[in-house]
Hints:
CATH 3.30.1330.10; globular; 2 domains; ATP-binding; ATP binding; alpha+beta; phosphoribosylamine-glycine ligase activity; six-stranded mixed β-sheet; PurM-like_C_sf; Phosphoribosyl-aminoimidazole Synthetase, Chain A, domain 2; four-stranded mixed β-sheet; Phosphoribosylformylglycinamidine cyclo-ligase
Amino acid sequence: MSNTYKSAGVDKEEGYKTVDKIKKAVGETHNSNVLNHLGSFGAFYEIGGYKNPVLVSGTDGVGTKLKVALDSKKYDSIGIDCFAMCANDILCHGAKPLFFLDYLACGKLDSEIAAEIVLGMVAACKDNNCALIGGETAEMPGMYKPGDYDVAGFCVGIVEKDQIIDGSKIKPGNKIIALPSSGFHSNGFSLVRKVFPDFEEEFEGKPLYETLLVPTRLYYKDIHKVLGEVKVGGIAHITGGGLYENIPRIIPEGLCASIDASKIKIPSIMLELEKRGGVAREEMFGTFNMGVGMIVVVDPEHAEKVLHLLDDAYEIGEITEGSEKINLAI
């Protein structure tokens, strides 16, 4: 029998099935700026209506949260996570997401699983008024075991040059407002899985995997609601490294984000991990978002307006003078 690509472990037909399952849904994310359709070598996106546009891009993956999804055979939320990790990053600069591309790698392609992951991305793109304009599915036997998947994404947004938010306008007295996370989001799962090895165990009346797989919150609508009403000095997406690593990224030299940790509303699943794993509180804050998915920094006279616009937001600190960039009293 002669060798074929299929005998080497790559089933092209399964790839075609994946495209068939997602093509219509992906097309529903397109708008008049998307000039071609899936199947071209490149995707075309027309930009108009801006005076001095700046493109803002971000790329990220889901990390080992994928292991929880694969072991639990629940794949829909992972696509949302992938999009959110990229789109939330570019929001920090005031950008509006324009388009998204995905990369899916596996050992043996299952079109049902692949389609479920991509359809999660479609749902997230629709929520953010963003077009899913392309992607790549790579079947790589020998690199990945059958049943293994990896997923990453790439998002491009746009902002007027004079409206870029980079933290440079942050000043002493500014208030720090927290937007709650929906859970662990997509960071710290190597430690999560070590402390919680049984994803089927019951936690608060349901299987643990349901809590662990709650998708990363999408902040597009919240952030752009605020940007439409208020001048914002800085925005930080709280991802790997927690508040300790992410807030200093937007704090100018000579200033410090002084945060009262007692004001932070820590999710019960994180308190359970801390207790069960014997994890020090400082390690928790240096690994997880601890219930704060994003922060915005605004002038004190605008703080009440932001809290009014965002029902679940709350104040956790203010900007002071100092050299350490963050002072988190825990």
